[in-house]
């Protein structure tokens, strides 16, 4: 049992004992923001990206598992997948939107994940610049091309 009464949380080993005669040093309060305080120069991009990875991940579980179930297991498995099968599904706006959402979310999720990997592992600023340039170019190209295909797909092509 401690007999020390100077601290509510008990004695601090070796530390200073503060009391009325020996007050703790005064720590200045943080400055308050005023109208003249400059605006923060950093935005919330990384927080939004962190949240996006979680939210898109949850949606992707449904989209990707549903996609795999239909393509690989139902109605005779993968052997049914061909031009006619794709044409049949893309005749419906429901599956067009499904595939469009899957394309956009998987590409943005994957690209943002790789952005994190590049930031973590590429040590030289120049290497990061080139790898991310390549990543963003490939991402934009794939998203645009995929979107174009979903909306301009012609089942009667010869
Ligand atoms: C199927 C459902 C999916 C779920 C639930 C999911 C979930 C997640 C989560 C929560 C993270 C963040 C991890 C962290 O910050 O430490 C992550 C990272 C990542 N995801 Fe996904 N994801 C899914 C699908 C995908 C797909 C389809 C791709 C590729 C197109 C992908 C590629 C990546 C990459 C490259 C990372 C970064 C890995 C890292 O930081 O080490 N994910 N995923």
Provide a compact summary of the structure:
The protein is mostly helical.
Structural notes for this entry:
The chain has a domain at 45-152: 3 helical TM bundles of succinate and fumarate reductases, CATH 1.20.1300. The chain has 158 residues and is an all-alpha fold. The protein has helices at residues 45-73, 83-90, 93-121, 125-152. Helix 1 crosses helix 3 (93-121) and helix 3 (93-121) packs antiparallel against helix 4. The protein binds protoporphyrin IX containing FE (HEM). The site of protoporphyrin IX containing FE has 13 residues, from helix 1 and helix 3.
What distinguishing features does this structure have?
4 helices; 158 residues; mainly alpha; 59% helix; 3 helical TM bundles of succinate and fumarate reductases; binds protoporphyrin IX containing FE
The fourth-level CATH homologous superfamily of the domain at 45-152 is Fumarate reductase/succinate dehydrogenase, transmembrane subunit
Shape: elongated
Number of helices: 4
Topology-level CATH name of the domain at 45-152? 3 helical TM bundles of succinate and fumarate reductases
In whole angstroms, the N-to-C terminal distance is 92 Å
How many β strands by DSSP?
0
Biggest β-sheet strands, sense, barrel: none
Strand pairing plus helix content: what structural class? mainly alpha
Q: Can you lay out the helices and strands and say which pair or pack?
A:
Elements: H1 45-73, H2 83-90, H3 93-121, H4 125-152
Helix pairs in contact: 1-3, 3-4
Protoporphyrin IX containing FE (HEM) binds next to helix 1 and helix 3.
């Amino acid at each position: 049992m401690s007999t020390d009464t100077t601290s509510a949380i008990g004695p601090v080993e070796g530390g200073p004992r503060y009391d009325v005669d020996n007050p703790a040093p005064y720590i200045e309060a943080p400055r308050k923001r005023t109208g003249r305080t400059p605006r923060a120069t950093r935005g919330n991009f990384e927080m939004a990206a962190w949240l996006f990875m979680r939210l898109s991940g949850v949606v992707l579980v449904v989209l990707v598992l549903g996609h795999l179930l239909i393509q690989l297991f139902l109605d005779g498995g993968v052997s049914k997948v061909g031009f006619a099968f794709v044409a049949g599904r893309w005749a419906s706006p429901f599956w067009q939107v499904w595939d469009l959402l899957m394309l956009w979310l998987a590409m943005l999720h994957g690209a943002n994940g790789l952005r994190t990997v590049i930031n973590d592992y590429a040590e030289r600023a120049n290497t990061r610049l080139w790898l991310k340039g390549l990543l963003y170019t490939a991402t934009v190209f794939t998203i645009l091309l995929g979107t174009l295909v979903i909306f301009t797909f012609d089942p009667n092509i010869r």
